Give the backbone structure.
Amino acid sequence: MYMEKGVYPYFREIDSHQDTEVMMDGKKVLMFGSNSYMGLTYDQRIIDAAIAATRKYGTGCAGSRLLNGTLDIHVQLEKELAEFIGKDEALCFSTGFTVNEGVIPQLVGRGDYIICDDRDHASIVDGRRLTFATQLKYKHNDMEALEKELQKCEPDTIKLIVVDSVFSMEGDLANLPEIIRLKKKYNATVYVDEAHGVGVFGRNGRGVCDHFGLTDEVDIIMGTFSKSLASIGGFVAADKDIINWLRHNARSYIFQASSTPAATAAAIEALHILKTEPQRQENLWKITNYALKRFRECGFEIGDTESPIIPLYVRDTDKTFLVTKMAFDEGVFINPVIPPACAPQDTLVRFALMATHTKEQIDFAIDKLLKCFKELEIIK
């Protein structure tokens, strides 16, 4: 139906590098649909590191990490990530999705409990579906609801709370201080997905756990390379016993080909830039606060976002697709969010910022979006 109407919004082709401006359909479009929060995907230093690694190691590893696919740069990246995140050790996977898919099933078993926020990422959902544990969910960021689920659990069992640090569609943060309080009260274990937190929050981008000063209290932290770290892949960081167990048992680690030399070297270089160029993170927050202020002043409904992910609520699937197309025609790329990524009454378009966006680009985009939203009577 949406294809026939000419508003189908998926698999749109980009024929340039990923930056604040991209080329699509032969024209320049402002990119506000990317997860490249640090704006590093076209940084020449990262490109050079990826090229150098390809020349040295080749294009692939032709095997899993367990067997013939471990390179010295894989080990280097894991050591640097563990130090950066603040855990004993880290383990790198070929994609972020397969971190959650492989790690979560190895942390709980029959007779245990896994407790998730009902807006956790699809990779967490798939990971918990692979477990034999009793699966419980609580209403998004509702700490009373979380406590009620914990009260259902047998006291002497493993109780694993799994939560996104930054929710990828709504842009709000998990209430980690309260989650940690409940962890201690009920002797639970906490697993935090920092996919959208690394690079954005905390000291030099160490994430939301660091932002709240709770890294030591969070048992397991995962993250991805495909956002702030300008590559592809993911990692999990924890104490050495947990990491050693996962190294020998996580199926998506043992049976998956290891990350390419180029992707690994790119993530290492991006991590170095995060640590040495705090001005990127500072600029991201300057433009984020500016954009949040402007959206609110213009009358957009943006919910409880506290991050560079800004949801613009539409609350109608047809209008969500239509406003995405209208914005593109005006030169602004945004992403539509419809079920199952959200509830039917919560459809939205997702506006995401990079450290390299300018105020002029933000003003242009907001003005165009305001025009589109008013035309569709989303804003009256």
Remarks:
- The two ends are 27 Å apart (CA to CA).
- The chain has two domains: 2-31+278-375, 44-276.
- Residues 278-298 form the longest helix (21 residues).
